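W.,

You were right to be curious about this one. When I first looked at the sequence I had no strong expectations either way, so I just let the prediction run and decided to look at it fresh. Below is the sequence, 489 residues in total, followed by the output.
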Amino acid sequence: DLGGYNFDKVTLELIGDAEPPVAVEHDIVVADNIQNGSVTASANKATAGTQITVTVTPDQGYVLKSLKFNGTDITESKTFVMPNADVTITAEFVDESAPPAAKYDLTFELDGGSGDIIGMEESYEITLPSGDGLTKDGSVFAGWTYNGTDYAAGDKFTMPASAVVFTAKWTAKIPDAVFEAENAEYKDGANPSEWGGVHVEEIKIGETVTRKVVAGLNENLGAEVKFTVFVSGETDKTYSAALAVTISRNWFGNLKFTDYIGVKVNNEAFTSDVVVDGYWGDGVNVWSDDASYMEFVLGDIELKSGINTISFTTLSNENGKACNFDKMTLRNLSVAVTAPQRVVLEAENALLKDGSAQWGSLAVETNEQGRTFVKNANGNMGASITFTYESEYDAEAVLVSTNTRFDVSAVFTDNIGVTVNGSPVQSDAEVPSYSANVWSDESFVDVSLCKIRIKAGTNTITFTVLSGDDKRGYNFDKITLLDLVPVIE
């Protein structure tokens, strides 16, 4: 006790001979090209904040049309407050017998509603209003149109000698793009914690599943969740989007999100000042508590047309400095953003054609683990498996083959010829070796061959055995068209 005080005020005593700053006077000049009248100001110099009165005297037979200082109209008041700058006064006098300038209606129609009608003089330049405050269900304001010409908000327009009606333009609102974390790519860091590696987990209220999240990033330095998105814009253009994440909160409150979760957009680091609130819940496992999940809008990001990646990486091994991921949302879009497609074509549904058939004809087989595949490509020189795919548009995709291995590794296209719509495809991808039972599930491997181009309509992808030698063919399960997206010309 008695260790503090009540405060009334603090007094500063100025020591030294410094003089207070002297206010700067600025010039007031009347333009020398004024005709048919005279203009005088109440001062020819003044400091900022001084009230200045302007006196105008038209010549006989003339009247004042406009009076301005530094371009600001003061025709009615004939006074102004001196700015912290030099001033030039301009004026225009017109013949009092001349008819007043014609006025024409200027109307802004809001796609069914109309704006205020403003009287505008011919040749008067206006600035077109913004769309702030204008709304239309399912649409976004996109500017104005008049007489077949489009104008952006803020454009300058000079009134013609006729009435003008500007009509609001609207474009369909692009829906938010939502990407569930359970469909993203995810991987562990170097040393996953005792909580287990990165995995998909169900969050429940009672017995009802409310969300599926990617969990296991806690104490998992380097663990990553990566989303791949496709932007359907123009080639070589960039587009902005608001990046939002729905994540779990925990007892480490009031931390900047990007201080403990690294964010990269197309491999470029992104930082945000957004702070994640703390959450204790009922003191039990907050990671599994549905109420701990909240959306945080991290900020605007730049996306390119075509394929983009957005990744989130754990930056700490410290318990609590991580989160579970529910989903990522991209908002305020000007073009559609979607997840690339993944198309699987099963070999059992393909067209089979035998070659030399040294060990028997191509046939469909199901192994003990329930996998169905096409066998007897080995030793079957000239045998082919043709997959057919119908596409709605010209597209690109990564071609992945799921097939067995042998006890020696080999470059895939050294053993199997690949054509897409009759054109040969080359790949450096290797099929790794496997010395155990080639019929077992463990023998099958995904081989990412290369990016291919497909056309709108019917496409054929053919695999042909190139040799009758033993161990030069594989058993085929399926092919996958990965990251299938439309081609942007």
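Here's what jumped out at me. The two ends are 78 Å apart (CA to CA). And, maybe more interesting for your project: The longest strand covers residues 293-304.

Coffee later to discuss?

I.
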